[in-house]
## 1
Amino acid sequence: MSKVLVYIEHAHGKVPKASAVAVAAAGQVGGEIVALVLGKGIDEVATQAAALSGVTKVVAVDDDRLENYLADIYSTATLQIAEAEGADTVIAAATAIGKDFAPRVAQKMGAGMASEITAVNEDGTVVRPIYAGNVLATTKINTEKKVITVRGTAFEPAAADGSASVEKADLAADAASKMRFVNFEETKSDRPQLADAEIVVSGGRGLKSGENFTEVLEPLVDTMGAAMGASRAAVDAGFVPNDLQVGQTGKVVAPQLYVAVGISGAFQHLAGMKDSKVIVAINKDPDAPIFSVSDYGLVADLFTAVPEMVTAVEKVKSA
């Protein structure tokens, strides 16, 4: 039986939804699913990975050299375990880390690669969006070994009802990194993570300033218990940091509810949110492209509409 090695990303001792989605995609590729956890002090993460439905075994490599993510040594470790397990396919979520190290794994394996796939066909081909999601390409990887990254919104995440075994493995003694970890500056927030949130409220250039993101949009975000996002135009204008960007060159999200405030709906932004279950758009331009994908649209001045929405939501919550 063929084997699929799935890299399990983690942060603060937790496995994110994106890794559970990668496991679900591996299930459609077929074969025995081996989950790979790299890092230092990863026992709890390995236990969480073992609970993901479909995983038959977890390989945990706990080593001081893996304490902080570095693309070269992580790709070396992944290749080592892929060869040891006889895996012919390596899968990772198409996160910032997955996009960074997966091509290195492909190069080291001599494997063909497909990025950000959204479906797996019965004949083994995969589907991936191109041209900002306006075209879906059916792709065949001709090499014997394959590397795949999976869009985090494309599959239902694997359930946490499994009970796979956990095996420890040692990193090769000569494995070393030419990179040096300096520091990691994390933006901390009490709000949900953008990629995992059930509700996302995003603001665009229509908010006109960073102060309006704070004074106008944030009350709606917090009242709804949502994650905050932004369009590329708002990020480029310096209103908010780029870790909030939703779109082709930002984060791809598919929450249960997506609220777009003052966002025109350029194709770059639509590529990052059009798979949301319910889309609500607020824009004073009735011809804004965002209305072409929205389920509910309000043509209004956001500076009037958003405070009214905050009041309405608070009344519902207190009823």
Note: The chain has a mean pLDDT of 94.
## 2
Amino acid sequence: MITVAVLTLSDKGSRGEREDLSGPLIADILKPIGADLKYYEILPDEKDLIKKKLMEYCGKVDLILTTGGTGLTPRDVTPDATSEIIDREVSGIAELMRFEGFKKTRRAALSRAVAGVKANTLIINLPGSPQAVRENLDVILDIIPHAIEKIKGDISECALP
């Protein structure tokens, strides 16, 4: 079982001015890989608060998925907060999401999403829209369990026969 924390980053969502559709969707999409949602919060787009929450959940769960704040507006600070706390970047995850997203829209190139590891926890930034969340998770869902096994110290061979 994979333990998960979901953080929705949205000023409007944190004030109750917008319903969060992406956070609950993430929990549903993860069910087929045996994920268990342990924590779910909606936070404003405040870098220091995001860093604090990421640090709080690192080591408590296997996977933290953020949704929102990956674009280019001045309030989009999720990748910046993530980059400041991770020990190791896993750039291939974000690259894969952008690569596949680019096949649907050229605007995928504007994503600043980051993925990385801190305290044996995999952190992945996802976009804010439900459609983009689904598209991005569909691309990486099958590699998440393997990534978490490796982060936890599995030394078996990675090559597929």
Note: The helical segments are 11-14, 22-30, 47-57, 78-85, 91-102, 130-140, 144-151.
## 3
Amino acid sequence: MFWRVFGLNALVFSIAGLVLALSPFTVNDPITLAEATTLVAGITVMLLINLVLMRRSFEPLMKLATTMRNIDPLKPGQRVRVQVRDRELSDLVASFNEMLDRLENERRASAHREAQATDAEQRRIAGELHDEIGQRLTVLLLMLANAQTDADPSTAEQLQRARALAHEILDDLREVVVRLRPAELDELGITNALTALSRTIEQQTGTTVVQRLHEPDGNLASITSLVIYRVAQEAMTNAVRHAPGSTIQVELEQDERCIRLTVGDRGAGISYMDASARGTGLRSMAERALLVGGTFDIDSTALGTTVTLTVPHTRES
């Protein structure tokens, strides 16, 4: 790069010197107005030529800098597309793209390992809560019921309130277990889990959910099915919040290479570039997509919002 810049400047100055030597132009002492005007015009032309040549030379670097500033970690695959003849610049562009490849691969691998570890820990905690705490609460309810049978009216009333409280605690515990790891995913598969989720949304909010779900071929990887479920859950929750009264459409389809989840509504639309939105549910969905090497897109207009998750069809090993 140093020699490229030096060569361009040397070329401009050499041409200027040659023109000056071959032209009849002279400078007297003191300089006249006409001579000063000619000299300024010559210097201006020389600077403009130098500017054009330097700008063309540094254009690939300017495009590289612009790409570096606009790289979004949540949108992998962005690369510098600059055709350059200079070997040094070409090597710089190639090195930058290779660096992005390594960073994305490492981030995806580390995030995948972390997600698998988190999924395993959530399964363990959910199992312990269900098997240990849940069973003990059930036994407690039976003990309270037996004690209530033989108690006097005043004590029986207190025991009844204790039973109601124990029932509420048990219901809350079941909700925590479902949030940690939906049982339908392991027992019934992703399509049945999404069907159960849609019914829950309808029962709790009164929102109509239209489903078109196709069961993926083969035994889908656990982490992939969990990502699909969580993104669908977050997208439907957002639709209920931002498009109340609108019908929600949920689709799950598959081709040879990937599985595609689509959740749409007919609300007023939201802006993906809004800072508060990106910092919450939408960013969470985009990060979940990266865990399994997928992509997350949102199309929001005044006619509604459509969320699309595309993930590789990875089977359980």
Note: The beta strands are 209-213, 248-254, 258-264, 295-301, 304-312.
